[in-house]
Structure formats: structure tokens, C-alpha cells
Amino acid sequence: MYKNLFSPMRIGNCEIPNRLVVTAMVTNYCTEDGFVTDRFIKYHEEKAKGGWGLIITEDYAVNEMAKGYSHIPGLYKDEQIEGSKKLTDAIHKYESKIFCQIYHPGRQSNQFVNGGKQPVAPSAIPCPWLKEIPRELTVEEILQIVEDFGDCALRAKKSGFDGVEVHLAHGYLLAEFMSPHTNKRVDEYGGCFSNRLRIVKEVYENVRSKVGDDFPIICRFSSRDGFMGGRTLMDSIELAQYLEALGFQALDISQGMYGDYNNLDNDTLRHGFTVLDADEIKQVVNIPVMPTNRITTAGLAEALISGGKADLIGMGRTSLADPHFPNKVKKGKLSSVRHCINCNLGCFGGILGPRGHVTCLVNPSVGREYELDFSKSNDPKKVFIAGGGPGGLQAAVTAAQKGHHVTVFEKKSQLGGQLLSAAYPPTKGEVAQFTAWLIQEVKNLNIALRLNTILTKELVDSEKPDVVIVATGGSPIIPPIKGITKPHVVLAEDVLLGKVSTGNKVVVCGGGEVGIETAAFEATKENGSVTVIEMMDHTHKNLRLNQLLDMYGVTVNINTKLSEIADSHVIVEQGPFKRVIEADTVILAFGYKPLNILADELKDTCQDVRVIAGANKTGNALDATIEGLDVAMSL
Ligand SMILES: Cc1cc2nc3c(=O)[nH]c(=O)nc-3n(C[C@H](O)[C@H](O)[C@H](O)COP(=O)(O)O)c2cc1C
């Protein structure tokens, strides 16, 4: 069925065994001084094992200051070659090829990650996200950076990489030079097209002169900047021919730059949202073209290749969600693929948030290949799990894989816990794919299931498991507010799951993730007015969620406290003032508190009890699957 996808392709002298390519992704798994770690190697090796045709590494720094994240690799000194050689050796044990992405972040960096130095850029315009005003590069410095790219590429060749990808995308240094939005120079590196492209030409020529003719050099660029006044698709059509003429041997087409998501975010939900741009670009060049961005199924990938719209298919987050995607597809095991649900909690959220490195909600093993041992336990245990939500199910699946005898107790008639309602708000439908995948794994692994059953102390006493895992999640917080027990006061989860109907004047209490998503869900019914009230001075900061509210015309009142619920309205406090908001339905979304009755009941026994996820501490589904994996591994 996927014969095009699994046909080989050449880039220069490098034969790539199939068309599935892992695109570059910062993981932050290396050392702070740019050395490769065992963790980094094993993470990539898992993908080679999984059958990807080509793996493109995350962006390697071309010099010591060229860092946009704290723990990225570098090839700016010879001592760094040895580690990367170990990486390429590990990949070459399989059929996969590996290219090294080389970059300089330009203004998309900050003093905390690049050795206390002010970021540099073509012009002194700050990145809208990172906000530090960069220093304008002198011509002398530009020439040094050009040399750095060449030296870095040569070290990549010495490290055994099969090629390099020069990073011209996403608003990093070379992209900054290319765009009139970020390059305001009036010397030979700014102004007209060929001046703005001068540094790219010099980088290409420098790299080529150092690596020789027999080493593939490809590049990645954004088909559009995503800012008014930035580069457009039409500019990229001209650019593509220019890059081909320079000598680049394949074009990896991405989109956007930092800060553009204000304009692009709605778009980024669409599957294959850069495919049509790449197709336009493909019309004007004769070298391989690779689209990326939310190409998540083998069917779409095959259709793009067979229909002549792409030569290679770039998949980033799909390779995190399931490093074995290619082999599963090749064997026809499509239903066993664990799909990326575009939640961005573990990947982008991982490198930008407190965890500091990449992980994945649907695949919490990612980045932990070096330490996790999935071989069968020598001491299989009888494991009872209370709660069939994401934490409980992940624990069940992992424990069963390790050979333990697992029974899941779920008080409701269906598995999934809060993942079930999480799929209902607009844009969240793909969450159901993961829930369905977990349920399927429970069946495949013959995990015993007791639905409609609460695991009690009596059951534990009589059936004597070795371990009890309490994964009962949280229960909704219901504050003691006058009128809160009235019949038109309902829970967000019940609204989402269609258990209760709502009226034309809806007030949602709580502007966290669940509150906002429920408000957006209500607004899609186009029945009447939806108002969110939130006590704090902001709602959940997720841009996508807030865009939904704008899009659907939801009224948001921050600094607003619910003080009473009456039959046809709510009374709220805004500072010293009281106000009435009409409401025929009041939806409670005040958050959750841990629900761990069973743990309390078992606390004075000698039973081995582990309390995880929402039953222990309020968190999200990413926390739950990570804790589920960890607890099962610790058995
Ligand atoms: C955590 C993370 C880090 C990324 N780092 C890079 C990078 O170093 N270089 C790059 O060109 N793109 C980077 N990207 C973009 C991806 O390569 C890819 O283009 C993007 O995720 C869209 O493709 P997908 O929908 O298949 O994930 C990163 C993406 C993620 C999720």
C-alpha cells in the first residue's frame, strides 16, 4: 500500500532508504557546553531502530555563542567530534541516514543560554518572544560566522554524518538576514534580494569548499515568515530557485518565525499546513522537496509522494509520539501507531517550560531510552490499579509490558477518565486517538478489567495484590457559595460529555484550561451568550485557547469573584463593586482536588500503595502519563 513511501531516494551521493524523515527538534538532552550525551544518542537510535529513512538532528551550534537553548549540541571545537561520531555510529548500525542541522540563533537567543552575551542579529530589532535587543553584527563578525558554519560542517563530516542541513528557517540568524522584516541594513548584507542573501551564499560556498563535492548539503527555510512585511510564499518561489542554483541539494520547507503564532496559530492546527506551499516551490526546482508540519498519517504521506507533491516527508512530533512509526506502517500495523495529538505539552512545552527538555504525553518514554528497561521482570507482581484515566492506563500498559499481572478497576462504565471529556472542546478531537490507543493496548496486553467497580479496602484485603496503584485522579472543586446546589449549576465535564443540557445564557466559573475550553465548546453551539468569570487577573495563558474565545465572541471577566448564584443570574464582585450577570446555566470549572480515598483507607495497613498523578497532586495529562510510566517501572 505504501510503496512510494518505502522507495529509496538520493540526495547527492547519499541513498536514503525511504521517504520518511525525522525533522530537526531541540531536545535539550546534551551538556551545557555542547557535548553529546548517551541520552541524546539512545533517543536518536530508537528512531533508527524504528525505520526512519533519514534523521535530521536538532540544531547544532556553529560557535560557542550560537545557542538558543541551554543544552543543545555543538560542533564548534574538535573535542566535540568524538561524541557525535558515537551518535552516527549508533545510527549506522541500522539502515537510516543522519544529517546534522547547523545553525546560529541570531536574535532568537538570550543571555541565559549563550554565555551572558547579548544576542546578535543583522539589525537591532528584538525577537517578540525573547525581547532582548540584539547587537547589530559588524561585517567582520559576519565573515567569522560564515567561517564558523564551514568549520562546523567539516566537523560534522568528520563525525560521520551523511550530510548537513543549513538552518535558514524559523527566524534564526540566516533567516533574519533573508527577511526585510528583520534586516534593515544598508550595507552589502541588506537591502535588495541578493544583498540579503549574501550571507547564505557565503555560508554555502564556505561549507562546500570545506566538505568537498561528495557531501550532501541541504537547507531548511520557511515558506513564509508569517508577519506582514516579511517574506511571502512568492518570495520563497524566487528564493527556492536561488538556493538550488547555489548548489543546495534538497529543500526542507517549514513555516514561520518566533512570534508569528499570533498570525499562524489557527493555521497550525491544520494537517499538512505547509504542504501546499511546498508544492508551489516544487514546481520551480529540480531538487528534492520535503514539506513538514502536521503530516501525521501514512496515508497522507503516501498520497503526497505518489501525487508528485513531495519527494520526502518531514515528521517531527510524530517521531516523538511513535519512534517506530515507519516500521509499523511498513508491516501494515497501522492501528498500533501511537499518534501525536498536537497537544504540545511535552515537546514545545518541555523545552520552553520548567522540565527543560523534550518529553511526550502519548510517549512518556521518549528521551529516556537510555535508562528504561522494558525487559520482563524477574519478580512479576500482582498489581491492582484504581482508576482508568491516563495515569492508571499508562501504568497498566507499562506494568503489563514488564510482565506483571495487572487488573484495572474503573468506577465508571468506560476507561479514559478525564481524557474522555478532554477530546470534546473545539480543536481537541485528536485526544480521542490516544485514549482509544490506550484502551486498545489494555486489550492487546490482556490486562484484566473491572469496570463499574470501585477498588475498596475490602477488595484489597480479600484479593491480596502485591501492589496497589491509586490513580483515581481528582474530584471537581465545588466551593461553598450560596446557590451552588441549584439545578442549573452543572460541572464542566458533564457539559462536555453531553450529560446535561445548557441554556442560552451561560456563565462559566473559572478561566483555567477546562473553563476556557468549555466556554469555547458552549460558544460553538451558537445558542446565545457565554461569559467566563475568573478571580485572578488572567485566564489560562494558552494563546490558542484565548484565540478560540475571541473567535467565538466569549466575554471574559477577570478579577471577578463569584459571590452568589440566583435562579436567573449570578452576582459577582469586581473589586469593591457588585454586579449581576444573567445566567440560565452556571458551569463550574474551578479545577480539581486530589481524590485518594483508597490511599487513606490503606494507610495503616502494610499494603504497598503508590499514589500517582491527579490522586496525589493536581496536574495535567502529561504529568499523569509520566507518573504512570515511572510507577510501573519502579515495581
Ligand atoms: C520540541 C521541538 C523542537 C524543535 N526544534 C527544531 C530545530 O532545532 N530545528 C528546526 O528546524 N525545527 C525545529 N522544530 C520544528 C520541527 O522540526 C517541525 O518542523 C515541527 O515540529 C512541525 O512538524 P510536525 O508537525 O511533524 O511536528 C522543533 C519542533 C519541536 C516540537
Quick overview:
It contains 22 helices and 27 strands. The protein has 635 residues and is of the alpha/beta class. It is globular and about 75 Å long.
Description of the molecule:
The chain is α/β, with parallel strands linked by helices and 635 residues long. It has three domains: 344 residues, Aldolase class I (TIM Barrel), CATH 3.20.20; 136 residues, NAD(P)-binding Rossmann-like Domain (Rossmann fold); 102 residues, FAD/NAD(P)-binding domain. It contains 22 helices and 27 strands. It has an eight-stranded parallel beta sheet with strand order 11-10-9-8-5-4-3-12. It has a five-stranded parallel beta sheet with strand order 15-14-13-16-27. A hairpin with a 3-residue loop joins strand 22 and strand 23. Helix 3 packs parallel to helix 6 and helix 14 packs parallel to helix 22. The longest helix has 20 residues. The structure holds flavin mononucleotide. Flavin mononucleotide (FMN) binds next to strand 4, helix 11 and helix 13.
Keywords:
single chain, 635 residues, alpha/beta, TIM Barrel, Rossmann fold, FAD/NAD(P)-binding domain, 3 domains, five-stranded parallel beta sheet, 22 helices, binds flavin mononucleotide
